[in-house]
Structures are given as C-alpha cells and as structure tokens.
Amino acid sequence: MDDQRPRRRRRDQTLRLLRQGYPWAPELRDGETAVPTRLLGRPAVVLGGVAGVRRFYDDRLRRRGAFPPPVKLVLFGPGAVHGLDDAAHHHRKALLLDVLGAEAVDRLGAAADARWAERVAGWAGRDEVTVFDEAVDLIASAVLPWAGIDVGPDEQRRRGRQLAAVVGGFATAPPPWAVAALARVRLDRWATGLVRRTRAGELTPPPGSALAVLAGGRDGAGRLLPARVAAVELLNVVRPSVAVAWFVAFAALALVEQPGWRARIADGDAAAARAFAHEVRRCYPFVPVLAARARRAQDVLGQPVRRGGLVVLDVHGTTHDPGAWPDPDRFDPARFLGPVEEEALVPQGGGDVRTGHRCPGEGVTLTLLEVAVRRLAAAPWTPVPGQDLGWSTARMPTRPRSGVRLRPGRA
Ligand code: HEM
Q1: What's the CA-to-centroid distance between 409 and ligand 1, angstroms?
Q2: Which residues neighbour 134 within 8 Å (Cβ) at sequence distance 6 or greater?
Q3: Predicted-complex ipTM score
Q4: Across the strands, what pairs with 289?
Q5: Domain locations in the chain as residue ranges
Q6: pLDDT (0 to 100) of residue 10
Q7: Mean per-residue pLDDT of the chain
Q8: What is the pLDDT of residue 3?
Q9: pLDDT digits over 41-57, tens only?
Q10: Domain 5-408, CATH 2.60.120.10 — does that match?
Q11: Does residue 262 line the site of ligand 1, with CB under 6 A?
Q12: Residue 81: CB within 6 Å of ligand 1?
C-alpha cells in the first residue's frame, strides 16, 4: 500500500463516491476487509468480502437513519421496510415475503415468458428494437396484473416508464433526478389511491396478490398500515421488478459478446440459462454499496465505530472479490455450473432474507432474467452495427448506453 493511502482514505469521500461510482469502494479498500474513512462529513467504515458481509448483517448494526434522503425518499419511499429494524422490520418483511412465494414467482415467470413470445413474434416487421425499452414495457405489462393492478396497456406502459424513471434517476444530478422525484410523487399518489380503493371495496385484486396483501397489511399491533405506507411497499414490489430491465440490457450485451453461450441457451440448455442469469447479476454493476449505523459504540473488524456511526458494505467489490471469484471482471457463466461462494454473492444483499434486509425479490429477479435470456437467445437478430455498447462506471445504476439495439430477422 502506498504511504499516502491512509491519509487519502481519511478525507471525506462523498464527492469521490458520486464522481467515481462503482469503483470507489473497491479502490478505497484495496483488498482489505474493513477500512476507516469519512462520508457525508462523518467517520465511516467500509466493509467488503465474506467477513465484511457477515459483520454488516450482524445485529449490532441498524438501518434506521442509514440512507441519505435521495435513496430514502425517491427510491424506497418514506416509511419503507428498508429503513425498519427489529420487530417492525420482521413484521413488514413477512408481508412482503407472503407476496413473493415460489408459486407466485412461477406465475410471474410464466406471464413474462408469454409476453416475450408475443413481443419477439412482433419484431418480425421492425427494422430494429432496443432491448432495454422492450424490457421496461414488457416487465411492466407482466408485473402490474400479477400484482393485482388491473389497468389497460397504455397505463401499464406509462406506469412502467415512471417506475423506470425513479430507478434510473434517483442517484443522479438534475435533470434526471427531478424527473425521478416527479415520477415518485405521481406513483405515490396513484398507489395510495389503489390501496384506498381496495380498502373501500371498489377494487377487488386477487387474494394473495401484492395489492390485496399490502392493502390489508397490518403492523405488529394489529393496526392497518397507513395507506401511504402500504402504497410505498406496493411500489417496492413493482418498481424493482421493472429494474430487472437494467440486468436484461446487460444480458443482451453478454449474448451479443458470447455467441457460444447464446447458441447453447437457444438449444434449450436450462442449466446454462440459469447460470447465465446468475453471472449477469454478479458481473454487471447495479447496487454499489449499502449502509447501516452502529446501535452503540463498537469495534467493527478492528475499526472503532461510535454510536450511530456509519458502516458501509462494498457490494460491487464483494461480487468482484478475486478471492471468491477468480478473474472477477470476466463474464463467465460457467462459474455457476458448479458450487460458488454463496456468501460473496451479494448483488441483492446478504444474510438471512426473513430476519435481515436481504432482498426478497431474488427469485423474481432470476426468473425474469432467465426468461428474457432464453427468449433473446432463441430469437433471430444481429446487433445494430456502430452502436455504443459501452457503459459508464460512474452512473448508478448503469447500463449499456445504446440500450442494446438489435436488428430482428437475421440470426
Ligand atoms: C434489479 C434487481 C434487484 C436488485 C439489484 C436488488 C437489490 C436489492 C438490495 C441490494 C437490497 C438491500 C439489501 C440490504 O439492505 O441488505 C434490496 C432490498 C429489497 N428488495 Fe431488491 N433488488 C432487486 C429486485 C427486487 C425485486 C424484483 C423485488 C420485489 C419483487 C425487490 C424487493 C426488495 C425489497 C422489498 C427490499 C427491502 C428488504 C428489507 O429491507 O428487508 N427487489 N434489493
């Protein structure tokens, strides 16, 4: 390590994180498990690797007050499960897990598969298609009815694009940030209306659907959740489902770059399709870091942290940790044809999904991604020449700039 590094680490890193994006935490850690630094003007510790993941998901840390306002208010929404702790968290999380059981995930996968089949058939008469845009519209058209939200195709498209605007703009500078914030306001109003109308008996979503379960959702004391909070959680199911379009765009890029895997998946190799989906989630960046706060003063893997001090998990660095993932920047689905270091596979968080904050949507994500990969691999297309397939490591979340443009009809 160079002599200047400890001094550089001690400087406030907020601007560097915003400017550098995904490489920030791995560069700061330089392979170490726990490093002290400063963020948002205060001391912080950045953790990574399997030991870092274990410590981050330990009960000595809490989530209340951990997220900066753009994340809390624009992405997750006020009062969301992401910022709850202890009994309040367990209770809310159980509601969400009720909606996301294996049978429900299979139903969503089947609906998305049928939409891809129709969509790909419709490409025949078109000069070109952009995979990212197709995926946003398609996922919205599958996920909204599945969630019990009965609206026509135009509204599905409009809501899908609003949901995508929130995901794409929440962590940026204006103007995308303003577009995201405005979309958030509109979505909150809409979803709160859906919850209120369900409670009033004007809407009758299917039992077990997200709208039915969350509109009837109660807190630990048996009180109905405020309509706005139930609406926030409804959006916390449909918004990240639309966010899978970011991974679908990367999957299309990987299919362009890996014709061997494309052929294998097109031939019906189910294990290859699953492994490909896993590797897309591991290899391509989405969530850069996660944040928590110390419940009381404590030692975090050798670093002293004050009560309320910030502890950050380097998600991107952990999914690219050479100890767990040899040649980590290489896209290689074959890693997932054998056993992997599960604890280092944290694109959607780590620890226990029921008791901790791990994402309850991993089944939905993998299923939506796998369905898309299978349909895209089997469809006849060539990439449009000359497009910009690069992506920025500073933009969060990022994706191929062109959205991946394909010319249908030629294999
Ligand atoms: C692009 C795909 C997705 C990514 C990258 C992603 C990533 C994450 C991450 C990193 C967390 C935080 C884990 C933590 O705080 O420890 C999280 C939490 C969460 N995700 Fe996802 N997710 C995705 C898709 C989904 C889907 C499809 C759903 C629902 C259908 C979903 C619902 C949630 C919820 C409700 C939480 C909060 C859990 C809690 O605080 O206990 N996510 N996600």
Answers
A1: 36
A2: 119
A3: 0.99
A4: 314
A5: 5-408
A6: 82
A7: 96
A8: 60
A9: 999 999 999 999 999 99
A10: no
A11: no
A12: yes
